[in-house]
């Protein structure tokens, strides 16, 4: 491994550790872009995910494309699934989640449906989707499907390696540069919030606390 790639890995590991500390909604105080359609929500409660994207675009119910994407996963990655506008067929189920977990994935986010809800929850792997469906993708080979390409996910363009953040509030996608730039401001805001809440709780006049 080259010295440059070692430095990149250390930088990413440091960023990941800091992202684990920040409240994701706080990022919304400072940025306007990168916020995925709020209809895409976690199917598990109490999750918090951060990791680099591995992307797949699935066209025409192509389940084989999902298999190729699963083989590209690595520890800590988040699988980002663009269903090409299909919000009926579910590409994610018990086997998909088990395979992703076996690859060390941090989570799965799909701009579409998932299935096998009880089994998904039993794996403990965070899965974000537009809901559930019994209608699934099929073992087809669609030439238009692609793995590790730029995709459109919930209205946000996602490139392989972008940072995918998800919790009970929704999903955010940021480049490494965007995540690094906003992180310290968001952490500082988080650090100041407990004192502000305490001052509100003891009845301090809001006129002295709120910006107006």
Summarize the structure in words.
The chain has 212 residues and is of the alpha/beta class. The chain has one domain: Glucose Oxidase, domain 1, CATH 3.50.30.40. It contains 6 helices and 10 strands. It has helices at 3-19, 24-27, 63-72, 94-102, 117-123, 176-201; strands at residues 41-42, 48-57, 78-82, 107-111, 127-129, 146-147, 151-153, 156-158, 163-167, 170-174. Strands 1, 2, 3, 4, 5, 6, 9 and 10 form an 8-stranded mixed sheet that branches. Strands 7-8 form a two-stranded antiparallel sheet. Helix 1 runs parallel beside helix 6 (176-201) and helix 4 (94-102) runs parallel beside helix 5. The termini are far apart.
N to C succession of SSEs: HHEEHEHEHEEEEEEH
Number of helices: 6
Strand segment tally: 10
Number of domains: 1
CATH architecture: 3-Layer(bba) Sandwich
Net shape: elongated
Give the integer mean of the pLDDT values.
Answer: 92
Rg from alpha-carbon coordinates: 19 Å
Query: Helical amount among residues, as a percent range?
Result: 25-40%
CATH class type: Alpha Beta
Distinctive features:
34% helix; 212 residues; 10 strands; 8-stranded mixed β-sheet; alpha/beta; Glucose Oxidase, domain 1; two-stranded antiparallel ribbon
């Amino acid at each position: 491994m080259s010295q440059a790639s070692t430095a990149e890995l250390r930088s990413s590991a440091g960023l990941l550790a800091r992202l684990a500390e920040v409240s994701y909604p706080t990022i919304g105080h400072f940025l306007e872009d990168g916020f995925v359609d709020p209809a895409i929500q976690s199917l598990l409660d109490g999750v918090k995910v951060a990791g680099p994207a591995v992307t797949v675009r699935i066209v025409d119910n192509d389940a084989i494309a999902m298999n190729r994407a699963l083989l590209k996963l690595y520890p800590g990655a988040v699988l980002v699934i663009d269903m090409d506008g299909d919000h009926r067929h579910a590409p994610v189920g018990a086997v998909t989640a088990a395979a992703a977990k076996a690859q060390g994935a941090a989570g799965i986010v799909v701009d579409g449906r998932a299935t096998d809800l009880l089994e998904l929850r039993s794996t403990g792997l965070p899965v974000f989707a537009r809901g559930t469906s019994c209608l699934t993708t099929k073992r087809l080979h669609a030439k238009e499907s692609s793995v590790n390409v730029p995709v459109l996910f919930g209205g946000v363009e996602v490139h392989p390696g972008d940072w995918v953040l998800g919790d009970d509030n929704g999903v955010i996608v940021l480049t490494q540069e965007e995540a690094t730039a906003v992180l310290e401001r968001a952490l500082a805001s988080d650090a100041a919030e407990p004192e502000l809440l305490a001052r509100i709780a003891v009845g301090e006049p809001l006129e002295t606390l709120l910006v107006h």
